[in-house]
Amino acid sequence: MTAETQQRILSAVDEGFDAQLATTQAFVAIPSTRGAEGPCQDMIGDLLRERGYEVDDWHINPDELKDLRGFGPIEHDFSKARTVVGTYRPDTNAGKSLILQGHCDVVPTGPLEMWETPPFSPVIKDGRMYGRGACDMKSGTIAALYALDAIGKAGLKPTARIHFQSVIEEESTGVGALSTLQRGYRADACFIPEPTNGKMIRSQVGVIWFRLKVRGFPVHVFEAGAGSNAIMAAYHLVHALEKLEIAWNERAKADRHFKDVNHPINFNPGIIKGGDWASSVPAWCDVDCRIAVLPGWSIAECQKEILACVSAAARDHRFLSNNPPQVEWSGFLSEGYELVNSEAPEAAFAKAHGVVYGGAVEDRAFTALTDTRFYGLNHDIPSLCFGATGAAMHGFNEYVELESLRKATKAMALFIAEWCGVEKA
Fold it and tell me: Measured at the alpha carbon of residue 15, what is the angle toward residues 92 and 127, in degrees to the nearest 5?
């Protein structure tokens, strides 16, 4: 690809950037929390059809996925769960095929009064776009679409098949991405523009979600000693799991990518529900938890360690020793992933990165997870993850930095042109 061709593509990104931001704002404005992603998928389907892509829009059936590697159990109403894929088929097959994927599901906002601006009324100020999902990762999904647009506006068209995939459940199980593989979508490489602060995800953790179901013995609080407080018993188990977290972080010091990362294994009791009355010793408490695992660690073996930790802690408790808690697997059962066998797409991206950013691509060991794992682990499809800079993902006042988004869009457009090849439209 000549320097003149590169410049035409870069200029096209700049020319379309205001429209890109407007589309991103409209996308962020849709409150696509778990189970409510349908309007976002409708919007993506419309955007793809307007651009002439073949659109495949289907309902996800968990029964078709449950035996696949990386499946996580679904507990909520899944009757409206959909995946949308738009396919571009070239007139000339000369390049290498590509999957471009983003997720449209977002995490809950928390108390609205704790946001400076409403989370689903995105605003642009001081070079940033604020809103739930503005960073993670709706801006990246729309950036991928406008990166493709820029190639067309530069008078070019790709010479390889491209699947543009909008998935759900990235924040809880990953079955949206898994559904695309079950559906048969494949390519020579995958690119996911998650917000990575302009670095390439070299290695990422996996995640296990589980629920502690603790039962107590209710009595009136005036005779509390005669009962057993399920909430306090749950705290006893949480403290034991904190010790498991410490042990796993010690083990992580031997990992080649995470040995220099401070505290890569994070355990989080994220939801707690329990009790029925302030003056009754609570008879029940459920705690939903998340813990990370490193690449190469067996999910089954880590599950056994969690069970053993909970069991040992219960034996040391007056009530739980005779009334052991239950552990339910409640979402992610996801392995960690290391980017390997990816020399060709990385070389193509390095060229694009050098033009836009200058210098070599920086690597990042990521203490969260992305959908890249399914493509690499399940089908040996090298899966690159690179994107813009932002902050407050899963927190209040989430934002993406707009100039970083412009640069990431440019790098993506040049990468697509380099990897897939282009010819005159």
Answer: 125
